[in-house]
Amino acid sequence: MKNFSTVGTRLVLAALFSGAAAVSAAPLKCEFRADAPDQHLVVKGDTLWDISGKFLDLPWCWPTVWGMNRDEIANPHWIYPGQIIWFDRAAGRLRLGNRIDANSGVNDPSRLRLQPQLRTEGLGKDAVTSIPAGAIEPFLTQPLIIEDDELKGAPRVIATQEGRVFLGKDDKAYVRGELNGHTSFQVFRPGKPLKDPVTKQVIGHEAFYLGTLKLQTEAKPGSGSDVHTFTVASAKEEMGKGDQLRAVPPMPMQNYVPHPPEQKVASRVVAIYGGVTHAGQNQVVSINRGKLDGLDVGSVLQLYHAGRTVSDSTADKGWLGMREQQVKLPDEEVGSLFIFRVFKHISYGLIMQVSAPVEVGDVAKSPE
After folding, report:
1. What's residue 65's pLDDT?
2. Where is the LysM domain (predicted)?
3. Closest Cα to residue 136, out of 341, 342, 297?
4. Averaged pLDDT for residues 10-17
5. How far apart are CA 346 and CA 112, in angstroms?
6. Closest Cα partner for 348 from 198, 197, 206?
7. I need a surface site. Which of 17, 94, 236, 257 has the fewest CB within 10 A?
């Protein structure tokens, strides 16, 4: 997605509240809930997903209903606490207003300013986010999927200050490897292999994030030593000899526009972060599909428990007394998954609405 100017923002906001005009072009039908309220007062802690869930059967299709074009917009529209989302039932669209009088007229649409306004001071500081940002922030730059031979040539800790077994904050670490001009690095340790639940092939490794190192002195050519001196800037877990380094990546854009994948995707849950066996709402899982399979940041998938295979003892076995038929039960939908970080063959997803615990091996596929 691309950045856009202030003029572009005004155009997007204008289109945003043209409402349901874009619904007919949606690949999936976005329906308003039968019990949708007349309006919603935005409060601190709201997310666009939560707000949309009050009005729509499918909360994640709010960009379509509110006229957002994911090729034109890089940020969510600026909705702030104190504003009102008003459901214009006659027109079948949503509108944004500002409350004029806090003591009267709250339920009177005529008392709302229905013209979108662009804030020029503190832009985005208190704006409502798309999804619960706190649930995924640690996963944007810290937990890491290692694929193929990405570990080859990674700088590594070869010695510690005074031969200590583990390093803590402000301790020195001695590192060998190419820094490629970087001065800040994450320290990680390869974890267990991630296996595809279907093929049983190893498709990557999940690395454990240990902390960060800051370059103190770079090895000088011709000095007789190719060892760099680092200082521990932060330590989340114990780090030591043999742990590997990765340049700290830039913090990615933290505003997301949910959408169905560009192509049909059928995947399985590979792992639940933290090593637990079941996951619920606002927990993170990894799936066995990535950018090479048509997924990108913001893709929404439906979660299903894979149907079990059972014996049909009621089927006619025939006169030869054949064995009972083996049949697969239907997959049972249990929730939705919001993809927020994508690797080549693996992706991280945040579980949104869920009606039953998610397990490794569950199905995650394009909305139907």
Report:
1. 61
2. 38-87
3. 341
4. 28
5. 46
6. 206
7. 236
pLDDT tens for 236-287 read 888 999 999 988 776 655 556 778 888 899 999 998 877 778 888 888 899 9
Reading phi first (left if > 0) and then psi (alpha if -120 to 50, else beta), residue 12 is in: alpha
State how far the alpha carbon of 246 is from the alpha carbons of 172, 177, 229, 232, 252, in Å: 17, 11, 15, 14, 16
Evaluate whether residue 23 is within a structural domain: yes
Residue 212 Ramachandran class (φ > 0 left, ψ -120 to 50 alpha, else beta): beta
**146 and 119 housed in the same domain:** no
Q: What are residue 229's DSSP bridge partners?
A: 174, 217
Q: Are residues 200 and 314 in the same domain?
A: no
Pairing of strands 83-88, 266-272: unpaired
Same domain? 283 vs 240: no
255: helix, strand or coil: coil
Task: Report phi then psi at 111, rounded to 5.
Answer: -95, 10
SS3 65: helix
Question: What CA dihedral angle connects 335, 339, 344 and 345, to 10 degrees?
Answer: -10
Tell me the pLDDT tens digit for each residue of 204-213.
Answer: 888 888 999 9
Q: Which of 247, 282, 304 is the last residue of a domain?
A: 247
Nearest Cα neighbor of 329 from 315, 311, 346 is 311
Amino acid found at 280 = G
Task: Give the tokens for residue 317.
Answer: 């076995």
Number of domains in the chain: 3
